[in-house]
Amino acid sequence: INRQNVQVLISLITSLGFDENTAEIIGYSAIDWADDDDNLSHEEFGAELEYYEAEQGYKPKNLHFDSIYELHYVRGMTEEIFQRLKWYVTVYPQDNNLKVNFDTASEVVLKAVALSKSGSATNTEDSDAESLVRKMIEYRRGSDGQSFTADDRSIELGQMGLNAKERVLF
User: Fold this and answer.
1) What does the pLDDT look like over 84-110, one tens digit per residue?
2) Rg value, the chain, Cα
């Protein structure tokens, strides 16, 4: 995880029903857990060596995650959050570049990605992100309306009938 994709993790955690503050603590602390410095990624929500030694009795890894179970060590993570989150995250690839297969990703993941981009920077709202995800899911189901059947389609921007705001988010 890095600064470019932390908003996806935050959106995913909030989409799973957890509060924004907790999601931000986990998101920014996950950056700090894996980055190779001792500088906070966010003054309020991050956690580096000082926090981990004082509060947890261990040091941050300062390397890529090798397993999703390492999330247990990240500031703010609880067993309840982990149990809901573990189905939607992976530690691969380890180059920190977010990769989502839009043709197979769950609705929860697609929604987290779209919501992470909505807001004033894109002049869009959460409702635009939710509409985009609905259209993506509907389109890829094909003519039978069922997921994972022979007539499923690959996501194609020009074929989904997106409005301007949905296109920006896409």
Assistant:
1) 999 999 887 777 677 888 999 999 999
2) 18
